[in-house]
Amino acid sequence: MRAQFVLSEIGVGLRRNLTMTFAVVVSVALSLALFGGSLLMNDQVNTMKGYWYDKVNVSIFLCNKSDAESDPNCAKGAVTDDQKGQIKTDLEKMSVVDSVTYESQDEAYKHYKEQFGDSPLASSLTPDQMQESYRIKLKDPEKYQVIATAFDGRDGVQSVQDQKGILDNLFGLLEGMNIAALAMMALMLVVALMLIVNTVRVSAFSRRRETGIMRLVGASGFYIQTPFIMEAAVAGLIGGILACGFLVVGRYFIIDNGLALSEKLNLINFIGWDAVLTKLPLILATSLLMPALAAFFALRKYLKV
C-alpha cells in the first residue's frame, strides 16, 4: 500500500508541474550530454596522443650548398661526409634514441614531389636544393630536448625540428575545446539544479495541506519526503536516458555514419564503442543521484509543516 501511494504521488507531482518537469529533463539531458561528451573528448585526445606521439620523429636537417649562402647556421659551408658520419655515430650512442634513418637529397626530393607535386614551387625545385636529414625515433617523445641540446648549432646542422611540437598545438586546441565544453556543462548543471529546487518547492507548496495532514497522523519525515525526492529522481533519470541517447547517436553519426569521419580521416585513431558504453552507467547514476540530493536538501528548507 505504501509503495502504491508513493508511486501515485510521484505521478501526481509530475503531472502538476509538467512544464517545470520538462525543463528539468531538458536541462539535465543537455548538461549530462556535455559532461559525457567532454569525457569522450578527453579519451579521444589521450588516444590520439598515444597513437601519434609513438610515431613522431625528431629531424636533424643538414646544411646544403644553398644554405651555406643564406643561413647563418650553415656559415661554415655544406655538411661534409665526416660530419655526417660523426652525427650518426653520436646519435646511435645516445640511450634515448630508438632508431636513426638517413634521408638523402634525392629521397627528400621524391617525398616532396609525392606530397606537394601540385604546388607551383615543386616545378622549380631540384634535388640539390633539398636537405639531407636524419630522422630519429625516440624511446620517449618527451626527450626531444636532449637531441636539440646535443646537435643544435653543430657544424653541418641547419636545424633540429621536433614533430611533437606541431602535435602539441593541435592537442592544445582540442583540450581548449574540451575545457569550453566543461564550462558550458557546469553552467547547464547549475541551471538544472535551480530548476530542480524550484520544482520541488512548487510541488511542496501545492501539496502543503496533504503533507500537513500526513504529519498530524504520524507519518515520518522520510515517508513524506520520498515522493518529492522520487519525482526529481525520475525526471533526472529521463534526462540521463536522453543524454545517453545523444552520446550514442552522436558517436554513430559523427564517426561511423553520417559524417563518417572514420573513413574520411583514416589517419586518426578514433575512440571505439567501448569508450562510449563505459560512460553510460556513470551518466545514469549521476542523473539519479544529482536531482535526488538536490531535492533532499531543498525539502529540508521548504517542507516544514
TrEMBL record:
Residues 183-301 form the ABC3 transporter permease C-terminal domain. Keywords: Cell cycle, Cell division, Cell membrane, Membrane, Transmembrane, Transmembrane helix. Pfam families: FtsX, FtsX_ECD. The keyword Transferase does not apply. InterPro entries: ABC3_permease_C, FtsX, FtsX_actino, FtsX_ECD. Residues 56-160 form the FtsX extracellular domain. The chain crosses the membrane at residues 21-41, 179-200, 232-255, 275-299. It is found in: Cell membrane. It is a multi-pass membrane protein. NCBIfam families: FtsX_actino. Forms a membrane-associated complex with FtsE. Part of the ABC transporter FtsEX involved in cellular division. PANTHER family: CELL DIVISION PROTEIN FTSX. Belongs to the ABC-4 integral membrane protein family. FtsX subfamily. This is Cell division protein FtsX. It comes from Streptomyces atrovirens.
